[in-house]
Write a structure and sequence with these properties.
Shape: globular
Number of strands: 6
Oligomer: single chain
Largest sheet: 6 strands, mixed
Number of helices: 6
Strand content: 15-25%
Helix content: 40-55%
């Protein structure tokens, strides 16, 4: 039990150091500086927000969707913009847009699409649901000329199967942490992408 107690104490000390507000702020600043804008056709980004803006956000899982929506809502609140309608969808295990998602995109001013890959399979259309869905969204939004930003959440390589994305940025993150919110801040002009 002495070893376990000592380990528990060290883990608690580590959590206290890592969780300090100064360290969390430093992590947030690093994440914001790491956002890399790989493509921005016709200077599409940043997206402008106004009263009654309609935004669709799509992410592969709820744990990625939630911080995307929360960050956008914080931006809207800080800017005191009224009536912004955010439609959010997790597309877990889906290979194509549903009728409800298409209708939301049809009515939207902007679309933010989170992509995610961890290996070749998860960035190869026809081999995994994520690239199939992402490709379907990009093709559809291009067809109807809906401004769309693709945010590569983990690895930056998804651009290889969606070169026709209008805007593409990389955030190099996971659900928990500052990277996903940093990407949303960049999409909506709160921060400038600095990654190279």
């Amino acid at each position: 039990t002495g070893i376990t107690t000592n380990l528990d104490n060290k883990l608690q000390q580590t959590r206290e150091v890592v969780g300090r507000s100064s360290n969390l702020l430093a992590g947030q600043q690093l994440a914001e500086r790491a956002v890399t804008l790989l493509k921005n056709d016709n200077n599409l980004l940043p997206f402008e927000l106004w009263d009654q803006s309609r935004i669709v956000i799509l992410a592969p899982w709820e744990e990625y969707l939630d911080p995307m929506v929360q960050t956008l809502q914080e931006i809207v609140n800080t800017r005191a913009i009224s009536g912004v309608d955010i439609k959010a969808f997790a597309y877990t295990e889906m290979k194509a847009l549903t009728a409800e998602q298409r209708a939301a995109i049809d009515a939207a001013d902007y679309v933010v699409l989170g992509s995610y890959s961890s290996n070749m399979t998860t960035r190869s259309p026809g081999q995994h649901w994520i690239p199939d869905f992402v490709l379907d969204v990009v093709n559809y939004t291009n067809l109807i000329n809906r401004p769309t930003a693709v945010m590569a959440i983990r690895n930056p390589y998804d651009i290889m199967y969606i070169p026709e994305a209008q805007a593409y940025l990389c955030v190099y993150g996971r659900a928990a942490g500052p990277n996903v919110p940093a990407g949303i801040k960049t999409v909506f002009g709160e921060t400038n992408p600095q990654g190279k």
